[in-house]
## 1
Amino acid sequence: MALFSFIPDPLQMVRQLVNTLEARLNALANTGMKSERVARTLNELATLSFAAQHVFASVSGAILRRLNLPSRQEVSELALALRRIEEKLEQLRASQTLAPTAAPERPRPPRTRRPPAIDVVSPHVVTQASVKRPRKRTEPKG
């Protein structure tokens, strides 16, 4: 740091500026709050602000109902319900992976047009290889 001491730290300058600004605003607010007129005006402004917020919320709610759109509260309730459903799904997936499967699936035969080859199980069983198929008749050319 000794090498760069000639360059001022920009973040330190911003901190000093913010601290000075806060101190001056705090002093101004303290002197202003001593006056009852300023305190009453700020109270009225806060009351008007809350009333405007309430009117805006009720008007926007009415507009959303007319447009058949959900309000912010309804969307947050849906998000909460969806989160609960996802948690239950995760619990079901976890319990399903922990539980052993009842029976493994039998392998299915390949889906081809040819019938499956029959193996010789005993000498009394007729296999497909031992069955003679009739030959196609070929007509003599001529």
## 2
Amino acid sequence: MHADPGGAALQDLTGPWSHRVPPRTPPLRHGGARTGRALLPTPPAGQWRVPSPKVSTMKLTARSVSRALLAATLVATTTGGVVALATTSASAASTLGAAAAQSGRYFGTAVAAGRLGDSTYVGILNREFDMVTAENEMKMDATEPNRGQFSFSSGDRILNQARNQGKRVRGHTLAWHAQQPGWMQSLSGSTLRQALLNHVTQVATYYKGKIYAWDVVNEAYADGSSGARRDSNLQRTGNDWIEAAFRAARAADPGAKLCYNDYNTDDWTHAKTQGVYRMVQDFKQRGVRCCSTAAATRRPPTRRSSTPSTRAAPPLTPPRPRPPRPRPRPRRPPRRPRPLRTPVRAAAPRRWC
């Protein structure tokens, strides 16, 4: 018995004349009627079975079964591929900060306080980054423009903007040979050393508990092949000035990470890289807290210092010379066609009579 889509029972079509003769069966030579590819013998009168209009028949062969299985396999494979793609796209990070967080890192940017009124600028900042560094607002000339008089308003704008968005803040920088206020540039010796340590203590104390990490000292090593310290007014106060700055920052804010920041220190073969490494190794052995070193990339400053910097520019890598072009071969002049030589016919011999 067969069941139609509506559930009604259909007439049983099994009987002596309800089957089809296979195509390979030789045709009958008497009383036969051809219907398509199958040849049906003519049944006796009165024994025709008319099927119901709702019945749809399909011939099952090895080819049709294999096609059905292939179609089912393709559907299952395609569906699985769509699910896999959906899962992969769902797990992909949508922002720079989220992408860095997947590998246990953070992705930060430098922020200028004067740009916080730009909605596009702030929108990108809030969406993409999870660490904020003040571009110039926490440097020495901005936080202590006059000796003993500190100003933190611009730095606080950046700090509050970041903390309100749940972002961490990296302080930059407590001690640097550049962007010093004018009054500090006129000092030297022990007077300059005392002013430097007081600056580090006052700024780190003000931001205590609010800064994730401080760039305590910035760019104190010289470029070139010497691997030595940079010649600056801070270096001339004594070779231990970097250690003194790190100890003062540690005492002012014990919870902050303390870092040394410099550029061109990402290649171990550079003498500058090895000089910084030896300094940090010495600090670790003697118990001076230095959590990490930061490799900075140089770019044109957004604001010039009030006085020219004595910092030498990083060496430029000369461009690669282009290989010489191969000289073109001289063109051969076209060959002139050889003139056709007309065969000279020998004169007929004269006959003498």
## 3
Amino acid sequence: MQIPPFANVIDATKFGAPVFTLDDRGDVELATACSPISHLLRFKESLKMKNIRPALLIIFFLCMLVPRTGVSGVDEGVAAYGQGDYATALRELKPIASKTGNSRAQVVMAFMYDNGQGVPKNHKEAIRWYRMAATNGNALAQYELGFLYFNDPAISPDYKESIKWLRRSAKQGNDKAQYSLCIMYANA
């Protein structure tokens, strides 16, 4: 009688201690307590690939039938913005940016309001969109918001707010934000 792979685990998982298992030859193996990866791998190996292949194909084709919600509208909107089709970009991105909080859509909306592309130029609205995207972690929006607070003549400078957003963007690797901070610190 063959012992199932899950039956030969020494139970030490309650405290996050190492778990030892016996493989098919009776040798001791070290597995992690947090995830039963080694057990899943052995379970997978015990199944025949010819039995799994049809199931995987069915799952793949079912996934292809499921519509991609949200992301496709963002991709289409960003592509339209890049091609200068601002009406399509606005139609695709504004509902997604407003309802789902997609930071990529929000930052493009901010660009449109900041530059008057497809909408009237409006710095307050641009800052609102930049702030939403920056709050959602978008490094480009954080940089733009920090730059606006430092350098935009349409709003009064707020150096503390500028440094806060530039630092957040710089921590994510945005080289423009890193450079801007260097210039700010050098001139302080």
